[in-house]
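cache lookup: miss for this entity combination. No prior model stored, computing from scratch. Input as submitted by user K.M.:
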Amino acid sequence: MAGMSESEPHCEALVADCRLRAATDLFAHTWDPVVLAALRPGPRRRRELRAAIGGLSDKVLTETLRRLCARGLVDRRAFAQAPPRVEYALTPLGRSLVEGPMQALGAWILEHGDALLMAEENGMEPGSTGS
Amino acid sequence: MAGMSESEPHCEALVADCRLRAATDLFAHTWDPVVLAALRPGPRRRRELRAAIGGLSDKVLTETLRRLCARGLVDRRAFAQAPPRVEYALTPLGRSLVEGPMQALGAWILEHGDALLMAEENGMEPGSTGS
DNA sequence: ACCGTTACGCACCAGTCGGTGCGTGCGAGG
DNA sequence: CCTCGCACGCACCGACTGGTGCGTAACGGT
């Protein structure tokens, strides 16, 4: 997932699924989907997110949030309060992503996750591929 | 997306969506979903894939195919023919991925793609975030 | 006045991904 | 006999990502 921000030069050449690329790019960054998911229950602040997620650095959280905001998936609301209070929440668009495709994905691994792990760990013995 | 192949140390800390990570990792590599999509119509050979997709190097195709095979999403079938003939096809597992979550994703961008582009290009003027 | 909290910013670094170019083994065809 | 097509393999390279550590601005509490 490098500089894939090209407009759409050879897009139609992409199996007619250039759109697919645009979509999968939403998951390109490791923590984007996780943060999105973490936001599903409701608005949260940075601290809360970091605590809830655990494992991502402050810097990356910022970048992730920025990206998500820029893409209109997340809404940033700053309150002019004493200790700076900033809340991040899913926009309707973001929510539709999370509750639509993302949940579909979730459901999929819940069902086929074991098959996936099995295949990955066994390597694939010839013939065991099912087919 | 760096070395995210850790087993599952702090997995449960991930908003209870560690599974989600496993799933999004399937899309981590730029061309994986594209190749998967390209395979949907039916078995194909390397050449055909490269031609159909356009834009990916030979090396990356190989890697992608390898990964997909290792994950049990794609089946590699080599024929002992004159010019080496190798066909790649979706396994049932792979097919379920493509026709399930992937299609959901596709449907999503088809519907919200414009909203996404709008948000991305406008940058977000304060207040225009909707909310 | 000093410290703590919150929300960032920036520099540095290692690991990884994708692209390019070139070489391999195999058999068919001229 | 030489060349071509196919399916790879490998080395090199630039670019990007994520992690770590440290510094900042604003404000409240003690």
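stored under new cache key. The CA atoms of residues 35 and 42 of chain A lie 12 Å apart.
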